[in-house]
Amino acid sequence: MNIVERLTEILVKDYKLDPEKLVPEARLDELGVDSLGVMELVFKIEDEFGVRFPAEQVELVTIGDVVAYVQNVMTPPPATGAAAGAAASQART
């Protein structure tokens, strides 16, 4: 199951939202998810995906924002500097 499917499952099950309305441009507030609901959603996402949101405020306005943020948190940053050189060196051997 991918991120969108898992997020949709959470929103349908826990927020009783219509899956047909869960499109990337759908605003959470217009779906009835208020600021407290967004905070709860963040905790549910952390549990579901095994990720941690940073302490600073993250602006999640649309379904697409949530998906993009989870994808970003789950994707490891590219190796840089010495680590990248070592990885490239190992790949050639």
UniProtKB/TrEMBL annotation:
Pfam families associated with the record: PP-binding
Span of domain Carrier: 1-74
Cell location: Cytoplasm
Positions of post-translational O-(pantetheine 4'-phosphoryl)serine modification? S35
Which keywords accompany this UniProt record?
A: Cytoplasm, Fatty acid biosynthesis, Fatty acid metabolism, Lipid biosynthesis, Lipid metabolism, Phosphopantetheine, Phosphoprotein
- Changes after translation: 4'-phosphopantetheine is transferred from CoA to a specific serine of apo-ACP by AcpS. This modification is essential for activity because fatty acids are bound in thioester linkage to the sulfhydryl of the prosthetic group.
Gene3D superfamilies attached to this UniProt entry: ACP-like (1.10.1200.10)
> What pathway, per the record?
Lipid metabolism; fatty acid biosynthesis; Glycolipid biosynthesis; KDO(2)-lipid A biosynthesis
Looking up InterPro entries in the UniProt record yields: ACP, ACP-like_sf, PKS_PP-bd, PP-bd_ACP, Ppantetheine_attach_site
Indicate the family of this protein. Answer: Belongs to the acyl carrier protein (ACP) family.
Q: Which HAMAP family match?
A: Acyl_carrier
Q: What does this protein do?
A: Carrier of the growing fatty acid chain in fatty acid biosynthesis.
- What is the name attached to this protein's record? Acyl carrier protein
Which organism is this entry from? Answer: Noviherbaspirillum album
Instruction: Name the encoding gene, please.
Output: acpP
